[in-house]
Prior knowledge:
heterodimer; A: mainly beta; 4-stranded antiparallel β-sheet; 0% helix; globular; B: 5-stranded antiparallel β-sheet; 11 strands; 57% strand
Amino acid sequence: EAQVTQNPRYLITVTGKKLTVTCSQNMNHEYMSWYRQDPGLGLRQIYYSMNVEVTDKGDVPEGYKVSRKEKRNFPLILESPSPNQTSLYFCASSSSPPGTEAFFGQGTRLTVV
Amino acid sequence: QQQVKQSPQSLIVQKGGISIINCAYENTAFDYFPWYQQFPGKGPALLIAIRPDVSEKKEGRFTISFNKSAKQFSLHIMDSQPGDSATYFCAAHDHSGGGADGLTFGKGTHLIIQP
């Protein structure tokens, strides 16, 4: 079954404690992205990757890092989380060319206290 | 700044009625217009999409109407059912823009279908 898998689904952490949200896709897609979803703001792209070792900033990259060492994995790293990063996070992948269907993971609800 | 403006923010429709959600854009480089449906606790999933060379696309009860000159597109849900209650996002793809998937999303519409 084609899917994008995120872990964990729920996470409560304290300010400043580094965390990683994992994302893996089994569709051999070149393109992967991270979004955050906040009430009234919709989906905003954090970072994206066009292929292995190729990443770039999206619209709201501050406070986040990513890496793409393997085609299937695209982890999101918060090195020093702050309360304003409390949000619902989605990983997405899509195939070449861009503009075709984007497949989203189930989401990770992060609370930073 | 690339933007897709979506309205209304929330919508309540009686069962059997027509749900209409509208989106407008400014960037003429947009070349693909998908709609995503999101149920609580789930990620968004592609519902239906259109390219600007056609004015309408229908899939079952779901129809996209596209007006290139007005730079507007809309989602119509005919015979709306309680199972259609979800958040709907319009999006637009810019083949010259940034982002792996090149998608710019609207802010979403929370649709409730009352039995």
